[in-house]
Each structure stands twice: as C-alpha cells, then as structure tokens.
Amino acid sequence: MNIISLRLIIPMVIPGVAGFAIPASAQPPLRLTSQTFVERVATDINGRPRRIIATADRPMRGDQLIVILDWRNDGPAPLRNVAITRPVPNGSEPDLDDPVMQISVDGGAHWGRLEDLWLPTPLGGVRRAVPADVTHIRWPLAQAAPGQTGRLSYRLTLR
Length: 159
Prior knowledge:
Strand order of the largest sheet: 3-2-4-11-6
Number of strands: 11
Number of domains: 1
Structural class: mainly beta
Number of helices: 0
Strand content: over 45%
C-alpha cells in the first residue's frame, strides 16, 4: 500500500520554533487544526500530586506537551492512503507509545517504528535510532470520506 504523505505544517507554541503558513491555493483537502497544552504536576490542598493541563504559553525544559490534532476532509471526494505528518520541533522528543504512529529519523525519507530504524555513525558504521533522533511523525489514514473528521493526540517532552 502506497501512502501519500500530506505534510501539514501547523504553528506550535514552542519557543525558538517558527510557524509557517501554506497558501490557500496549495492547501490539501484535509484540514488540520492543532492545540498545544502543557501537563504539569502540582500538589493539592491535601498534599497529593495532581496533574494539571494548561495552555502552553511558556513551556520550559522538561515540560510534557500534549498536542491535539483535529482533522477534517474538506474535499468533495474521499481521500485514500494518506497520512497526517508532523515535524518534531528541535529540542523535543515525542512519546512513541502509539502503535499506529510511524516515525522518521531522516527528515521523512524513510518510515517505520523506532526499533526498525538505523542511522549511520561518523566512523562508517550504523547504530539503532533513539527517540532523540526522531525528525517527523505520521499517522496513516486508509480513507477519509468527504466531511469526515477525526482527532489525534500525542505528547512531546522538551529537552
């Protein structure tokens, strides 16, 4: 099965990472919107730790970001064998627990699971890829009917 990768670039609220815009005439029929939150642990009045989700206005090193992607097929025809692709911002590391998520460690040229990907070493050998090597993540969509919507979410840790 060939997968057509739709590289949808959505601005994220991460310091040092610039947002990009795609001209309206070049936008694919798959509309994508995103929201980014930060998850922090705070102590409640009884001294117990509680997870708090807040807007990611000022994320800091070590913060766990939660990115929620809402997609919709705005086109008149069904989409088949497409993928929602996101670049991983420099200085962040994605949580790779989602079994459907595919990753790339070479800018999107090759895709797979982390345990299947290798990188060249400076001395001419190869090594297994590690989470810090991930450059892009994607989720394949077998099909999306006109008007169909969906939601994906993933986590990033700021290094």
